[in-house]
From TrEMBL, chain B:
CDD domains: TM_PBP2 (cd06261)
InterPro entries xrefs: ABC_transporter_permease (IPR051393), MetI-like (IPR000515), MetI-like_sf (IPR035906)
Mode of membrane association: Multi-pass membrane protein
Pfam families, per database record: BPD_transp_1 (PF00528)
Localization annotation: Cell membrane
Source organism (scientific name): Streptomyces gelaticus
Domain ABC transmembrane type-1: 84-295
Alphabetical keyword list: Cell membrane, Membrane, Transmembrane, Transmembrane helix, Transport
Ranges annotated as spanning the membrane: 25-52, 83-109, 121-148, 168-193, 214-239, 274-295
Record's protein name: Sugar-transporter integral membrane protein
Span of the signal peptide: none
């Protein structure tokens, strides 16, 4: 009986002992010989797991004693992964693809006292209350229209002559007449993002404070310049320039359809260039700045590329800052990261395709880069709601109804 | 006093009490790991979720208590109300189809033969594959560039909006859910049908009851408790529909297939309002529990009424 009792107690206690052992073992990532830095990154078709490991190997070779470990996010965003890790009391050291806000800035190391940060792209545009928490490698621009040169030639269109929304609409009519699907759309997140790339160029160039004003309730979607853009978009659906069946396409499907010449134009960011290069179609594709109802060329809706933050609770903060400094200032690291996603940075060049060079020229001529950060960052979840409302234009909603839906949703979130 | 009582109880009684104490200790010891696991894995997370749902926690900073604000917001948030409408449609239509189809299929295949066994296995097969994978498979079949539309395109027919037309997409989603899940009901119902006494069926047949009458008046009432269990399981399962939604439609087009669980996981938890997302999750849990209890209570009442007749 005694031995049975002992066995029973043993069975009951064993999981606790094992759990304690695991808990004690966890977190002791500081090997006796050096430091292990854990870095959260997003894996994309261009920025693969292999790419990051190769980049980190380069750092490790020049920094003996430091190991950089890739933290995969799985199916969740970098932001969600960071939250999970922090909630679990197991903070990573560095995270990518996170834009600090006034509410979250305290989670990240203030890098303002690091003189090298001033030279990183868009550092001040992304500052929160004047402090730099995030530094990036380059810039991405997104108010671009890629076009099929053969289709334009067949339709007799000069891309340089498309500067206004009316000219853009007229070009679509001629492309349709020439037997092409004028504008490539897709489902998933693409529908809303393409609208954003189009409308933000016009609206936010005219009023860079628009988002901040929307937060204060001083402007609305229904009574602003967004409404005419919604009307343009709806008219393209009604005229058959945009195909409803595109909503059943994935991002990759839409991109492939354009690359295969099934459609004549594709609104997308500079990150489309590597896909065109990989498909060896760069020379067959041209690019021009998104037309607007206002000034031309408009400011480019853009963002910082490869943004890095150092987590305040990092156990190796100094080493983490050193790593971020290397990733954003070392010429070899910069060129590698720029080239991998066709991003841009003043003073840095890398072998580019003709399409990449055209995008660089557009950035050089752009009067500004419009960034959605700080007070200009929309409320959380807006991009999903925008996507839903833009897709609703295909399923029968009116432009005014979509604008009202956006306002109603925004108001319900504040 | 206690000592006196124990002394007077005698060694035999003391021994019995000791054995009882040992038994209780062993029982507790055996239950301990399970209770501990249940507490750690279920009770504590639910408690924490309820607490978080009453705060404005953003997932990063310290949570501040906000009372029932998150629950009030559930009713004025247009995304939530739209998602509930879609969820309700999927849950009701899906449950009716899964139970109905399962019942018809089980009645047709209740006999013991190799052919019946084969078709029962075929019906159950989708249930063993991950719902996420099934969604991707069907997306490859029904999508704009999918197998069906590609075949139609070869004949010059415009693509059918299985996944890009908002009404069609919801029907496609429900159809795939039913196809993936009704096999489980078939297995349940076939097992239940085999418990119906053969002599009862023979007696009914001798009395001149038709096959239809036997099924409707004898067989189905006799397996009604199993049908109730299947209904509750299907209903509660479909209220939480997520994986097929993610892989088949992604909640689109225009949010027309966005279920409440999809909203919680793909939108709310991805944002920074974790307190609100947790309130949505707690609300979903309560609705599931209430529905399960309601269906069971209705069934019990029917059983009692039948017994009283």
């Amino acid at each position: 009986m005694k031995s049975m009792w002992r066995r029973t107690c043993g069975l009951a206690v064993a999981p606790l002992v094992m759990a304690s052992a695991v808990a004690c073992g966890n977190g002791s990532d500081q090997a006796s010989e050096g430091t292990t830095l854990r870095v959260i990154v997003n894996i994309t078709p261009n920025l693969t797991e292999k790419y990051w490991n190769d980049l980190f190997d380069t750092y490790e070779k020049s920094h003996p004693g430091v190991t950089v470990k890739l933290e995969l996010t799985g199916t969740i965003s970098a932001d969600a992964k960071l939250r999970q890790d922090l909630a679990a009391g197991d903070p990573p050291d560095v995270a990518q693809q996170i834009t600090p806000t006034a509410d979250t800035a305290s989670l990240f190391a203030d890098l303002s006292d690091q003189p090298w940060t001033a030279k990183t792209p868009l550092a001040d545009q992304y500052a929160v209350d004047g402090k730099r928490y995030v530094v990036g490698v380059g810039e991405q621009i997104q108010s671009l229209v890629f076009y099929n040169k053969a289709a334009f030639e067949k339709a007799g269109i000069d891309a340089a002559g498309i500067r206004t929304m009316d000219q853009f609409t007229a070009a679509m009519g001629r492309l349709k007449g020439a037997g092409y699907k004028p504008l490539q759309a897709a489902g998933q997140w693409v529908t809303g993002s393409q609208f954003s790339m189009m409308a933000d160029a016009g609206v936010l160039t005219a009023d860079p404070e628009w988002t901040a004003k929307r937060k204060d309730g001083k402007v609305s979607f229904a009574r602003s310049d967004y409404l005419p853009y919604l009307e343009h978009y709806k008219s393209w659906i009604d005229k058959g320039y945009l195909d409803k069946s595109a909503l059943g396409l994935t991002y990759a499907d839409g991109q492939t359809a354009f690359l295969n010449g099934k459609s004549a134009m594709y609104i997308m960011g500079s990150f489309f260039v590597p896909a065109a290069d990989a498909a060896k179609k760069s020379d067959e594709i041209g690019v021009f700045t998104m037309p607007t109802d206002g000034v031309y060329p408009s400011g480019q809706f853009g963002n910082i590329s490869n943004p890095y933050v150092v987590v305040n609770k990092s156990r190796h903060k100094a080493e983490a800052i050193e790593f971020v400094k290397w990733a954003t200032t070392d010429p070899k690291a910069i060129k590698s990261q720029l080239a991998s996603d066709a991003n841009l940075r003043e003073g840095f060049t890398y072998p580019m395709s003709s399409l990449g060079s055209s995008v660089q020229q557009i950035l050089d001529k752009a009067p500004s880069v419009i960034v959605k950060s700080g007070m200009s960052q929309p409320v959380a979840g807006f991009s999903d709601e925008l996507n839903k409302q833009i897709q609703s234009l295909y399923t029968g909603s009116s432009p005014a109804g979509a604008a009202d839906g956006l306002d109603k949703w925004w108001n319900s979130q504040s | 006093m206690v000592e006196l009582a124990e002394l007077s109880a005698g060694p035999k009684q003391r021994g019995r009490r000791g054995a009882r104490l040992r038994d209780s200790a062993i029982t507790l010891g055996m239950m301990g790991p399970a209770v501990l696991l249940y507490t750690v894995m279920t009770v504590v997370p639910v408690g924490v979720a309820v607490y978080l749902s009453l705060t404005d926690w953003d997932g990063f900073s310290t949570a501040a208590f906000t009372g029932l604000d998150n629950y009030k917001h559930l009713f004025d948030d247009p995304s939530s109300t739209d998602a509930w409408y879609v969820t309700g449609l999927i849950a009701v239509a899906g449950t009716v189809c899964m139970v109905g189809l399962g019942l018809v299929y089980a009645l047709a295949l209740k006999g013991r033969s190799r052919t019946n066994s084969f078709f029962r296995a075929v019906a159950y097969f989708p249930h063993v594959i991950s719902a996420l994978i099934l969604g991707y498979l069907w997306a490859a079949i029904l999508g704009t560039n999918g197998a069906v539309n590609n075949t139609l395109a070869k004949f010059g027919i415009e693509p059918l909006g299985f996944l890009f037309d908002e009404k069609f997409a919801l029907i496609s989603l429900i159809a795939v859910i039913v196809w993936a899940g009704f096999g489980f009901n078939v297995v349940l119902f076939v097992a239940a049908l085999q418990t119906v006494p053969a002599e009862l069926l023979e007696a009914a047949a001798i009395d001149g009851a038709s096959k239809r009458q036997i099924n409707l008046r004898i067989v189905i009432p006799m397996i009604a408790p199993v049908v109730t269990v299947a209904t509750v399981l299907n209903l509660v399962g479909l209220i939480r529909a997520y994986d097929i939604v993610v892989s088949l439609t992604g909640g689109g087009p225009a949010g027309s297939t966005q279920t409440f669980t999809y909203l919680i996981l793909a939108r709310s938890f991805e944002g920074t309002n974790v307190g609100y997302a947790t309130a949505q999750a707690v609300f979903l849990m309560v609705v599931s529990a209430v529905l399960a209890l309601l269906v069971t209570a209705l069934r019990n009442r029917q059983d009692q009424a039948a017994a009283g007749q």
